[in-house]
Amino acid sequence: MSQTYEFQMAMTCEGCAGAAKRVLGKLGDKVTNVETSVENQKVTVTSSLTSDELLAELQKTGKEVKFIGAV
User: Residue span of the signal peptide, if any (predicted)?
Assistant: First the structure.
């Protein structure tokens, strides 16, 4: 079952947002939706994975990331 999670991520440009989408995109069908907002510094992810698993993937971008909560 999928859940939607929100993360705060240090993003300064669309390139940063693209990095988040790329690492999450490698998870295939375990991630069903990714929305990024550079302005709000947020990444919203709908996935069957846990928030900890998603956080670990987002940290691979090298950006500062923290879990905000489930939506």
Answer: none
